[in-house]
Amino acid sequence: MSRLADLWRRVARRPRKQGPAAMPTMRYATSPLLASRTPVWRVKFLIGAIGLGFAVLIGRAAWIQIIHNDFFQQQGANRYERRIELQANRGRILDRNGELLASSVPAPSLWAIPKDLKATPEQVRELARLLKMPPADLQKRLKSNPNFVWLRRKVDDEVAQSVAALKIKGVYELREWKRQYPEGEAAAHVVGFTNIEDEGQEGIELAYQNQLAGRDGSRHVIKDRLGRAVESVGELVPAENGQAVQLSLDAKIQFYAYQSIRDAVKAHKAKAGSVVVLDAVRGEVLALANVPSYTPEDRRNLTGAQLRNRALTDTFEPGSTMKPITVALALETRRVRPTTVLDTAAGRLTIDGSTISDTHPKGDLTVAQVIQKSSNVGTARLALQMQPREMWEMFSSVGLGKKPQLGFPGAVSGRLRPYKSWRRIEQVTMSYGYGLSSSLFQIAQAYSIFATDGELIPMSMIKRDQGEGERPPLTAEGDGPRPTLAFKTAFRPEAVASHPAPAAQDEPVQVRGARVISPETARAVREMLQLSTGPGGTAPRAQALGYSVGGKTGTAHKQEGRGYASNKYRSWFVGIAPISKPRIIVAVMVDEPSNGQYYGGLVAAPVFSQVVQQTLNRLGVLPDIEVQSQIISTEPGEVESF
User: Fold this and answer.
1) Collapsing DSSP states into helix, strand and coil, what is residue 586?
2) Other Cβ atoms closer than 10 A to 137
3) Active-site option among 103, 109, 320, 439
């Protein structure tokens, strides 16, 4: 080492050759640049700039990580965290006996990510065939959104399995809930249906949407790059399933009613028909059927005519079914008695230039025979004895002109004009059902005053709890709230038994209603209704095997524009059974029968007979007539006036 150091010193002391090309040498320590003084402002500027840069970086870091970190945390979470929706199961709809009318079942839905889709032309054609759509429509759907498209929602399991067997990359399956309706078209207008998002659109599904829908839950998970959930994070929000709704309907009675009106519409080549069955004791709707109907699960070719719940949404002039209500008012105000004789003369009566007529002259008729023979002239003579306000309040007190309190979508109020605008001829025609309008349900409910000894019973589509709405023990003040009426009635509270016999343990208890007429008047009209279904009445074909019945036919010309069609009719029948101890009210309407018969006693009364017999058997009501001695008439009966 000492030898090398000594050699290095000798070389360093050796003088260098100077030449014209040699560059002058300068040591770094003696550089003029370092010897010059740097301005102070430049130093401060550089230091300030560097400090400001660091301050900006620190502030930005604080803004991102401390003050405003929500956005960036969300962006990060979006790349690994997913929210999985826990779909609530929609509540069931049940009949009064617990039979299913609507329920939800798991159903696969097919979706795709078009940008990830890899399929051969043959696979695409087969996929389109399974989805029941043209290949061009499938291609159009796939091109609509590169990230997500629904292929078909809530398909059958067989379809989902066949699609899975194609093994097409980019096509996936999601489990959802699909609504099923076991009673099909028989109960469609009552139950209604839901849309593809499981939201109620018609009927009970719409009316009780909040109760049936429940509330969806959710859970947050961390997913890997393949989309698999590897860890749950956050709090689990469980789904709350919808509550069940139990209707007052009886599925068997509903089917009987639908089957009977369907066959009648077909037999008479009618446009449509409806049936309403009410429990006059419990105040419940047992059946409400319409034709034409539809299948709730298959609505691809659904028309407005099929969708209409005619018994509640359609109004028409009720015709002769109004006559018992007019007679009840005359009896209640003591203007007449059932045996009072009225002169119908030659079957014609002229009022203010307009002529009221019967189908044929009937001569002198008692008030009871006016109902039995359905006399327009007899009813008109009763109406002329009354004040318009009296008739208006009577009609209003039985629910005409008022929307039924059913909580059911689409129910209408009908039309009952203020009495101050009535002309004399209009007052007369309203007494037998022209000049006002109502739904079939309204007329059926109005007849509850005859079935319950004078009380208008509130009706429910939901099954009442045991004891709900039951009538309290009768007192000397009467057995029901009484509306304020303009006419003085014959009702005497002391005539009502103060201590009625208690109902048998297995018998339903009568619900409470608003009293409209006295029990005596109700029983008198009930006897007249029974005459109408007997020999010499307008509806002997309404008789039911083993049960006493009573009711009133109705036939009305259909309105067209400002007048009436000469060859288009509606046929009605509204009745009560059994007459000895009323349990049910049945109303039938057939729209535009065109097979040669159109009178209510020929078209609607037979439907009433079938429904009454099947319904009372279903309810376990014992026959009140000796079956051996009863002969059901096949005669057409008295031709009614309308």
Assistant:
1) strand
2) 11
3) 320
| Rounded Cα–Cα distance for residues 515 and 505 (Å) | 26
Instruction: Report which residue type is found at 331.
Output: L
With CA atoms as reference, report the closest residue to 349 among 366, 335, 362, 333. 362
Q: In which residue are the tokens 């139990």 written? A: 246
**pLDDT tens for each residue of 291-324:** 999 999 888 888 888 999 999 999 999 999 999 9
Bridge partner residues of 588 (DSSP): 275, 573
Separation between Cα atoms, residue 171 and residue 175, nearest integer Å: 14
Task: Please state, in angstroms and rounded to a whole number, the distance separating the CA atoms of residues 175 and 197.
Answer: 13
Number of residues in the chain: 642
Burial of 104 (0-12, 13-18, 19+ CB in 10 A): buried
User: Cα angle vertex 117, ends 113, 119, to 5°?
Assistant: 150
- CA–CA distance from 51 to each of 42, 46, 465 (Å)? 14, 8, 80
For the full predicted model, state whether its pTM sits above 0.85: no
- Give the closest residue to 490 by CA, choosing from 444, 529, 440, 454: 454
The terminus-to-terminus CA distance of the chain in angstroms comes to: 143
Task: Report which of 87, 97, 104 is spatially closest to residue 296, judged by C-alpha positions.
Answer: 104
Tokens 């099929």 correspond to what residue? 306
Taking Cα atoms as reference points, which of 342, 357, 355 lies closest to residue 640?
A: 357
| Cis ω before 606 (30° cut-off from 0) | no
Residues 88 and 42: their CA atoms lie apart, in Å, by: 71
77 CB contacts (<8 Å, ≥6 apart)? none
Residue 66 has phi, psi (to 5 degrees) of: -120, -55
Question: For residue 551, what is the enclosing H or E element?
Answer: strand 550-560
Contacting residues for 466 by C-beta, under 8 A, at least 6 apart:
none
150 neighbors 189 (Cβ within 8 angstroms)? no
Residue 429 φ/ψ, nearest 5 degrees: -70, -30
320 annotated active-site: yes
Return d(Cα 369, Cα 529) in angstroms, integer: 10
At 50-93, the pLDDT tens digits run 989 989 999 888 888 888 778 777 777 666 666 767 788 899 99
